[in-house]
Amino acid sequence: MTQTNNNMTVNPDLAMERAKCNFNVLEVTHIFDGGERNTLQRKKIEDVALNSGASKDALGEEHMSPKEKYENAVRKSCIYATMMKNELAELSGLESFGVSSPVIRRTADAFFKEVSPFLLHLGMFVPTIMGQCTPEQQSYWLPRALDMQIIGTYAQTELGHGTFIRGLETTATYDPETEEFVLHSPTLSSYKWWAGGLGKTVNYCIVVAQLYTKGECHGTHPFIVQIRDEDTHVPLPGIKVGEIGPKMGFNTADNGFLGFDHYRIPREHMLMKNAQVLKDGTYVKVARHGKLTYGTMVFVRVVLVNEVAFNLAKASTIAVRYSAIRRQSKPKPDEVEPQILDYVTQQHKLFIAIATAHALQLCSTWLWESFSAVLAQMKGGNTDTLPEFHALSSCLKAISTSDSAHLIEQCRHACGGHGYMISSGIPNLYNFVSATRTYEGDYTVLLLQTARFLVKAYEQAEAKKPLTPTVSYLAHAFSGSRATWDNSPDGIIRSFQALAAGKTAVCVTNMRKRMRAGLSQVDAWEMSTIQLVAAAEAHCRAVIADTYRKEIVRLTANSSPNVKVVMDQLTTLYLYYWALERTGDLLMFTSVSQKDLVDLQIAYEELLLKIRPNAVGLVDAFDLRDELLHSTLGSYDGRVYERLMEEALKSPMNKEPVSDAYSKYLRPMMKGKL
Ligand SMILES: CCCCCCCCCC/C=C\CCCC(=O)SCCNC(=O)CCNC(=O)[C@H](O)C(C)(C)COP(=O)(O)OP(=O)(O)OC[C@H]1O[C@@H](n2cnc3c(N)ncnc32)[C@H](O)[C@@H]1OP(=O)(O)O
Ligand SMILES: Cc1cc2nc3c(=O)[nH]c(=O)nc-3n(C[C@H](O)[C@H](O)[C@H](O)COP(=O)(O)OP(=O)(O)OC[C@H]3O[C@@H](n4cnc5c(N)ncnc54)[C@H](O)[C@@H]3O)c2cc1C
Questions:
Q1: What is the ipTM of this complex?
Q2: Which residue, of 287, 320, 344, is where some domain finishes?
Q3: Could you tell me the distance, in angstroms and rounded to a whole number, from the CA of residue 654 to the centre of ligand 1?
Q4: Per-residue pLDDT at 86
Q5: What is the span of the domain harbouring residue 201?
Q6: Which of 10, 197, 234, 571 could bridge to 201 as Cys pair (CB 3.0-4.6 Å)?
Q7: What is the pLDDT of residue 137?
Q8: For position 98, what pLDDT does the model report?
Q9: What is the model's pLDDT at position 277?
């Protein structure tokens, strides 16, 4: 594995772990990156972007005031954006997530401990222009946006509504006299709230508003709106804009609020790919599917699966390397204190994080490919696959973000007290990833979207109608007998599918019972939502497990024997872990016995021991440069205690021997003179 500094001194425990590793680390890096070509290009991009040292700060971000932090983040965003236009432009022809490759996005993480104020520009503003504009609109806006002549964000959520988009209150009323839309915020709750970069950075934004023309409301539509002067950056008349204040994370993203006072924009600034307002105010619906204006959200949900996989890989790298150098307790009095990685409970906390990072990474690539296929069909006017894809992207977004946040927190627990230090890198990772569970569609809300699809699919299966691929397992839901337990990987995946089918069946039965007892369909649904969320979660686990397993088998077909073994161990670990987490459900819906579960627990524990010698090799294979980890605990060389002390000494509190607080408060209080 290449590191920036080849002459570094490595902690002896880490060196020993690396010597013990029995598989080819680079081969696994290629699997994680999606092929050798991608690894080579990623490394080139990282070398160009990071070797100059431009990503480094003289003073750690954590010691800056909020204003300094923000300005520093803008400074570095501009450096990085300029690099993207120049040095990185040619290199970024990777298998890309559309706008800019995920590698470019990930490399940017070296520049920010939190996030760039430009995140929404690349993540949502540009994709909305690409997805919601007519070709003429696109040819006007896209070059300006890609060249960063204008900077934008995506302002949909309001103070009063985030989840329920149809409830948004901002209005865009067409005035045929002037051929303009009049944007207005009629209430406090209609103020836009949350958009990243809106507070101080952007001069344009996509605004989602209720469209009125000829006295009729046509629901929410996107508009491109200039909010600041292109030269002075002063907010334009009729615009009230500001920053929303400190948050748990995202503190360099200047999330903002925005209100309109009868603010006029040209008719052409409505994004008209899916619906149009003609000069005389006639409304014309173009799209075949009513929800195509939600397209940018679907795109980001897909991207987020990849995003959280990467952040989980970082957290597990930090926690595993730290666990290899940390020694604690003396279970055997005559022996030295063991590395904490030798404790089986520690392995239980950490190895699932490694396996999940792989599972989500592979699912994200598969999801991206499915998304590309759906987009290609929609180009030809066919939206038939959209409902299944919406159900799939919703549950994968919900489960991947939730699992990653949970496992990153588990990595923090695994690092004991030092994991609580900002300098460990884990708190920032957690703060970032825990927000992903909420934004772009809350966890519960998205799982309920998937549940809608599952219930419909169940009814189709009941009527012996054809099923779409991700729910084809529902065809076996009516056999009347419990699924046969079998602890092979394929057997466990079939059991996960049986859980999802069983839970969906319970929901449908309960809803029908409730409706027979007099509840309306809406109330019967509402009373069943705890179970519906559980059914959607089970479905998603079955999808992840199946995809992970199939992809690993495919990708390791030509791998060296030891790589095959270790990748197989990780997928098996994922399956055992989740089977053991769901023993109650397995007992309900499969033929598993108490003995089978005891045997599975033992097999799981033995698997942890088999993976243990390769643990550091596995996280090294994520190939995350120190600049990306921002961690005193997780650096490649393992100089943990030295780095912790170096960071502590940087604290401004250590600048003077006696704090001013002594003479101001402590001394007077202690001398009884306060
Ligand atoms: C690579 C470079 C870029 C890198 C970028 C990195 C990542 C970027 C990070 C950025 C950081 C922060 C960004 C944060 C941004 C935001 O949060 S923007 C705001 C996001 N907001 C939401 O996600 C709101 C969630 N709410 C909804 O999506 C909808 O309101 C909801 C789906 C819950 C309900 O919509 P309704 O219109 O009310 O629909 P229903 O009545 O429930 O359903 C009617 C039918 O429509 C179907 N449906 C719903 N949505 C979709 C969709 N998107 N696609 C297809 N179909 C959809 C639904 O299933 C129903 O179908 P049915 O009737 O059952 O057949
Ligand atoms: C860091 C961050 C960045 C963001 N950036 C942006 C941005 O750039 N642009 C933008 O437009 N927005 C942005 N958002 C807003 C984000 O999209 C919303 O916060 C998110 O969609 C959740 O909506 P909400 O806040 O209205 O939550 P609510 O819907 O109020 O959720 C509160 C609770 O109610 C529950 N709930 C709500 N509806 C239902 C239901 N139908 N059934 C069951 N339970 C329900 C939820 O599960 C949750 O537990 C951002 C948010 C965060 C945290």
A1: 0.98
A2: 287
A3: 48
A4: 81
A5: 121-287
A6: 197
A7: 98
A8: 39
A9: 98
Task: Tell me whether residue 440 is one of the annotated catalytic residues.
Answer: yes
Q: Which residues contact 264 (CB under 8 A, 6 or more apart)?
A: 175, 178, 180, 181, 182, 183, 238
Assigned domain for 21 exists: no
Do the Cβ atoms of 473 and 493 come closer than 8 Å?
no
- Residue 24, classified by CB atoms within 10 Å of its CB into exposed (0-12), middle (13-18) or buried (19+), is middle
Q: Which atom of ligand 2 is the closest one to the Cα of 153?
A: 8
Measure 219 CA to ligand 1 centroid, in angstroms: 15
User: What's 228's DSSP letter?
Assistant: B
202, 206, 298, 439: residue to mutate for ligand 2 pocket, most atoms within 8 A of CB = 439
Find the DSSP H helices in 228-343: 295-325
Query: How many separate domains does the chain show?
Result: 2
Count Cβ atoms within 10 A of the Cβ of residue 531 and give its class: 0-12 exposed, 13-18 middle, 19 or more buried: middle
The predicted pLDDT at position 61 comes to: 85
Mean pLDDT of 414-420: 98
pLDDT at 5: 44
CB 140, CB 303: distance < 8 Å: no
Residue with token string 């939190």: 114
How many of the other CB atoms lie within 10 Å of CB of 107? Answer: 26
User: pLDDT tens, 278-324?
Assistant: 999 999 998 778 889 999 999 999 999 999 999 999 999 999 999 99
Rounded Cα distance, 24 and 563, in Å? 7
Pick the catalytic residue from 62, 388, 440, 627. 440
> Quick one: tokens of 38?
């991608």
CATH of the domain at 524: 1.20.140.10
Q: What is the pTM of this model?
A: 0.96
221, 255, 287 - which closes a domain:
287
Mutating to test ligand 2, I would choose from 119, 163, 523 the residue with most ligand atoms within 8 A of its C-beta, which is: 163
In a domain, 586, yes or no: yes
CATH number, domain with residue 261: 2.40.110.10
Percentage of the chain exceeding pLDDT 70: 97
Q: Ligand 2 in contact with 244 (CB < 6 A)?
A: no
Residue 633 lies in a domain: no
Cβ atoms 653, 336 nearer than 8 A: no
Is there a domain that residue 557 lies in? yes
Question: CA torsion sign, 582 to 584 to 585 to 590?
Answer: positive
